[in-house]
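Minutes, project check-in

Agenda point 3 was the complex the collaborators sent over. CS summarized: two entities, 358 residues total, and the question is how they sit relative to each other. Sequences were read into the notes so everyone works from the same version.
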Amino acid sequence: MARIFNCDLHIHTCLSPCAELDMHPSVIVMEALEKKLDIIAVCDHCSSENAAYVMKAAAGTSLLVLPGMEATSSEEVHVVALFGNIEGLIKLQEFVYANLKGENNEDVFGVQAIVNAAGEVEGFNPHLLIGASDIPLNNLIDKIHEAGGLAIASHIDRESFGILGQLGFIPEDAAFDGLEISARTGIKKARLLYPELASHVFITSSDAHFVSDIGKSPTNFLLESPSFNEIGMALRNIDGRKVMED
Amino acid sequence: MDIRTIAKDLELKVLCSNEKLDEKITGGYTGDLLSDVMANSRKGEIWVTRQVHQNTVAVAALKELAAIVIVQDASPDADTIKRAENEGIPLLGSSRSAFDVVGRIYVLINES
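CS then shared the predicted structure for the full assembly.
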């Protein structure tokens, strides 16, 4: 029997240089439960070291945590990649690191802390996570799919790093599984703003960089059970699974 | 001012649409955000950009821009060059920065 699952599929952790340092794995899980979320996805900029810790922090709770990443293409388009397991994410991670130049400067861009489920600092990510990779958009989407993931265009309504701002329109051959609308616009208004995107699935997510923003703009998914496969089916609108827009 | 004169003076690499180089330009525009170029560029302008995504060609065709100058030795893929050729839009390449390219074109226009 299908029911509604409350999902926030784009949350940063303290690994992202621009996110609050309080965004520890256990804090994120507690806040997500507090906000009555059923499924969240951890999506740090071009990195993934905290994803497994958030999954571990949620073990034994009702919350499903999907490992993910917000990757930056060479055109400076942000793409959310979601996976059903950590192995898929690691495959994408290896490819992204092989195509990401530069080292972080904490004083300028912020700290990139790897923090475990117990809240202990495991280390710091040295890569320039705020930067763009050398991976062209279509190649990035292909790699996400090859690793078994779903590719969602991040905050398409935002000029900075959104696909419409960067590339003017969605390229015909860009095989996105969904388009994300930011909290400030929401799906209903986005449908009015972008009639040319009527055939695309819209979701909305918090893109939380601060604890208080978690669950700010959840999407209701109609699913049989909370799982990555069910999310994929809903994005393809098959067998009764779907994204609820109201 | 025609595109050929600019291409010669700035030693631009002509990637396609050689037959359109004698067209006159009306001015120029610079930008890498395609939404901005769609909103603010005008017909007949030469467009200087670091963006190499194939959408650049569609934007140039839509806005009837005279040519695209790609800076910093960035290289569009073969498909993008083919699209530009089909649309009759010259794609020109330069190893210089956008600042340098725009400055030189600006001087050329003002001296002509």
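Noted in discussion: Chain A touches chain B at residues 75, 136-137, 159, 164-169, 171 (CB under 8 Å).
Follow-up: revisit at the next meeting once the mutant set is ready.
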